[in-house]
Amino acid sequence: MSSAPRSVDPDRLKAFSKQVFGALEGAMTSAMIHLGDRLGLYRVMADAAEPMSSAELAERSELHERWVREWLHAQGAAGVLDYVGDGRFVLTPEAEVVLANEQHPAFGCGLFSSLPNTLSVLDQLPEAFRSGVGLDYDAFGSEGARGVERGFAPWYRALLVPMALPRIEGLVPALETGIRVADVGCGGGIALIEMAKAFPRSEFHGYDVSKFALERAEGNRKEAGVENVVFHDPREEPLPDDGSVAFVTTFDCLHDMTDPASVMRQIRGAIAPDGIWLIADIKAKDGYEANVEQNPMAALMLGTSVLTCMSSALSEPGGLGLGTLGFHEDLARHMTEEAGFRRFENLDLGHPVNAFYVVRP
Questions:
Q1: How confident is the model at residue 2 (pLDDT cuts 50, 70, 90)?
Q2: How far apart are CA 186 and CA 182, in angstroms?
Q3: What percent of the chain has pLDDT over 90?
Q4: Can you tell me the distance from the alpha carbon of 183 to that of 270, in angstroms, rounded to the nearest whole number?
Q5: Cβ-proximal residues to 335 (8 Å cutoff; 6+ apart), any chain
Q6: Fewest CB within 10 A of the end CB: N or C in the chain?
Q7: How open is the CA angle 307-313-315, to the nearest 5 degrees?
Q8: For 189-201, how does the pLDDT look when each residue is reduced to its tens digit (9 = 90+)?
Q9: What is the pTM of this model?
């Protein structure tokens, strides 16, 4: 017996439809940002530093004017570019640092570069929902690894060495003298390479299970010309268990791991009695309500979690499945203590997305 149809409020229907199609509009704008980045259009506009017509932008980009015109119109309508009249659009200084300047810590366009690869797994996710087993990061291919790298690299390049490391007591003098450093979940290796350039007397070891990330890391190392960095697949070359590592970093990866507790125990075995472990992970709260109430990007992060972070954390049977907003401070304190660490400090670096913790034995 079917239930009686529920009544629909016309005003609420209109508001809800606007919300849903606004999300679709955001997806279309994201696709246009991806194209603008991939085609170099933002960089051309940044170099021009003045309003441009579609004909001018197409000529300097060596592209077809009609396609460029429609792209400009879409970006203007979305408010990504400013329309100044007479068929001309401009990239504001603020838009330039977010979309065109890869050396600025606010650069974010890199996160759009792997958009097609990220969305390509949608066809595989229904099976993941049925089986409970997700996809690791190599499911996104080499471009996925490049996108993650471009998303995080600007902060590493601009702020890690000059701003973050000096905030940790005793660390910089030790790095200058020469110590052994391990970056667990090193990705494309940018953080390690920046530290290796700054502290040539120290030796740096990167560990990652993604073959695409390790390939990029080695390529980045060669391009940078640093010799005091080595990259490892921990399944073949695990962390040492002799307490020989003086400084360990884990940047935005613990919530992606299927078994972060095991990795924490390995870090405890590797770290020296007076060693330092720097954790960077997504600012998260304990529970859905707190995350939604206090994080304006909660919807973005939870959707990202289904596509990437939680999927990776469930990519093996029995995976913990923390996901993007699953590794909150209380859990971090509990898990590091369970792994054998006794000191835990919240390090406020003013980062808009990440929390930082300094952990010691």
A1: low
A2: 9
A3: 96
A4: 12
A5: 260, 261, 264
A6: N
A7: 85
A8: 999 999 999 999 9
A9: 0.92
pLDDT at 49: 87
Q: How far apart are CA 159 and CA 253, in angstroms?
A: 19
- Using the structure block, give the residue that is written with the tokens 């203590």: 337
pLDDT above 70 as % of the chain: 99
The tokens of 260 are what? 């972060």
How many CB atoms are closer than 10 A to CB 151? 19
Contact present, 214 and 205 (Cβ < 8 Å): no
Terminal Cα-to-Cα distance of the chain (whole angstroms): 64
Residue type, 350: G
Instruction: Spell out where 120-187 has E strands.
Output: 180-184
DSSP class per residue in 30-55? HHHHHHHHHTTHHHHHHHH-S-EEHH
**Order of strands across the sheet that contains 88-90:** 52-53, 88-90, 82-85
Q: With 70 as the cut, is the pLDDT of residue 1 above it? A: no
Sign of CA dihedral 253, 186, 152, 170: positive
Pairing of strands 203-207, 229-232: parallel
CA–CA separation, 293 and 100 (whole Å): 32
SS3 percent helix, strand, coil of the chain, rounded to 5, is 55, 15, 30
| Answer CATH for 10-101 from 3.30.565.10, 2.40.440.10, 3.40.50.10260, 1.10.10.10 | 1.10.10.10
Q: 220-276, pLDDT tens digit by residue? A: 999 999 999 999 999 999 999 999 999 999 999 999 999 999 999 999 999 999 999
Q: Cα separations (Å) of 116 from 3, 98, 113?
A: 42, 20, 8
Q: Which listed CATH number (3.30.450.180, 3.90.650.10, 3.30.565.10, 3.40.50.150) goes with 120-360? A: 3.40.50.150
Helix or strand or coil: residue 271? Answer: strand
